[in-house]
Specification:
The chain is an alpha+beta fold and 361 residues long. It has helices at 42-50, 93-103, 108-121, 137-149, 167-184, 195-201, 219-224, 229-234, and strands at 3-11, 17-26, 31-35, 60-63, 66-67, 78-82, 155-159, 187-192, 204-209, 212-217, 239-240, 244-245, 249-252, 255-258, 266-270, 276-277, 283-292, 297-302, 309-313, 324-328, 335-338. The strands form five sheets. The chain has a six-stranded mixed sheet, with helices on both faces. Strands 16-20-17-18-19 form a five-stranded antiparallel sheet, with no helix packed on it. A four-stranded antiparallel sheet has the order 2-1-4-5, with helices on one face. Helix 4 runs parallel beside helix 5. It is globular and about 75 Å long. It starts with a strand and ends in a 23-residue tail after the last strand. The structure holds adenosine-5'-diphosphate and magnesium ion. Adenosine-5'-diphosphate binds at residues 12, 14, 16, 18, 36, 38-44.
């Protein structure tokens, strides 16, 4: 089912503009993630789509050719999974999953067969008789997912479903969920504030800030061509190379970088994996921090720009704290963002995807 939002907005009675007028299309079978910091309007947008929240006058929500804007939640045929599992703790896994089907007054045979089907899909067969209170967090969340899809919804909405789990469990279930959602062949919208989760699970990510979708694209597009300082920073932690841009050179405290053509009028950003510590570098700084993270080192270098410049090093050894190092950054690794589009995350921006200058050389 295709979801289409036209001019969807939400102002709460106290005047909070939780969602500014938003356009969004989710195609049949597509898995879209809404990614953004806490308070940017993700849950509000999801609840409007579900029918749990009424939207402002003028908003339109379409499921295929049906205008569902004023349809109540129970008639939208939407499956939902939340951070808190909202399961019946003393009921068995089987009874929890079958609960919605029982409400729908399906026959016992039909209920059993559907429950068996989703138990198998979610690899919960061995736990079917257990009470939910005897399951781990990850297992509970799989039960919540199984319960959401058992009624065969037209759309699955997930609101930070992994946030309550501990780190190791979260990563396992994240990868599992990416596979499961594709197996279900269902249109899904997945809300998260965690960029790794969004990238691992979604076909397309819509980045939100202050009540607006500020950019949407595949994980690769967002990472390589962020359209604003906000997206560059939020997706992949790009660092602002704060210096003087003469058009073909960027003059920093710690040396000069050659810029690509057409750099005039742009702010320059770089990602830590593109900051190379090597003797051919034109920049020079002093190592301030070294963190060993198993697969790589994170090295914080001072004296190149006002803030620390971070380098990710995949070598088997790292320089020592206090050491002076040369740093090289290839000019094709620089992210150029037009000055007009520097966004301050605290400012409300009424822009959507269209018309925002994207340029990366
Ligand atoms: P997110 O899910 O991205 O963390 P929400 O959609 O929950 O954000 O909230 C967006 C904004 O709307 C926040 O500023 C929040 O405080 C506000 N908000 C949410 N629900 C209500 C409500 N019922 N009344 C007033 N303001 C609300
Ligand atoms: Mg939320």
């Amino acid at each position: 089912m295709t979801i289409r939002l036209n001019n969807a907005a939400k102002t709460f009675p106290d005047g909070t503009k939780a969602l500014l007028p938003t356009e969004l299309i989710v195609k049949t079978g597509e898995i879209v993630s809404l990614l953004g910091p806490s308070g940017c309007g993700k849950t509000t947008l999801l609840r409007i789509i579900a029918g749990l929240e009424t939207s402002n006058a003028g908003s339109e929500i379409w499921f295929d050719d049906d205008n569902v804007t004023s349809l109540p939640v129970e008639r939208r045929k939407v499956g939902m999974v939340f951070q808190s599992y909202a399961l019946f703790p003393n009921m068995s896994v089987r009874a929890n999953i079958g609960y919605g089907l029982k409400i729908q007054k399906l026959s016992k045979i039909e209920i059993d067969s559907r429950v068996n089907e989703v138990l198998e899909m979610c690899q919960l067969q061995d736990f079917s008789a257990r009470a939910v209170s005897q399951l781990s967090g990850g297992q509970r969340q799989r039960v919540a997912l199984a319960r959401a899809i058992a009624p065969r919804p037209r759309l699955l909405l997930l609101d930070e479903p992994l946030s309550a789990l501990d780190a190791a469990m979260r990563e396992d279930l994240r990868d599992e969920l990416a596979i499961l959602l594709r197996d279900f062949e269902i249109t899904a919208i997945f809300v998260t504030h965690d960029q790794d989760e969004a990238m691992a699970i979604a076909d397309r990510v819509a980045v939100m800030s202050n009540g607006s979708i500020v950019q949407s694209g595949t994980p690769e597009e967002l990472y390589r061509n962020p359209n604003s300082a906000f997206v560059a920073g939020f997706v992949g932690n790009a660092m602002h190379l704060d210096g003087k841009n003469s058009g073909n050179e960027l003059i920093l405290e710690g040396g000069t970088l050659k810029l690509p053509n057409k750099s005039k009028g742009h702010n320059v950003y770089v990602r830590a994996e593109d900051v190379q510590i090597n003797d051919n570098g034109t920049l020079s700084g002093q190592v301030e921090t070294v963190t060993f993270l198993g697969t790589h080192y994170r090295v914080g270098i001072k004296g190149i720009m006002p803030n620390l410049l971070t380098s990710i090093l995949t070598d088997h050894s790292a320089p020592k704290v206090g050491q002076t190092v040369k740093v090289a950054i290839k000019s094709d690794a620089l992210i150029l963002l037009s000055l007009i589009h520097i966004s301050e995350p605290t400012r409300r921006r009424g822009i959507s995807d269209g018309g925002v200058g994207v340029e990366k050389k």
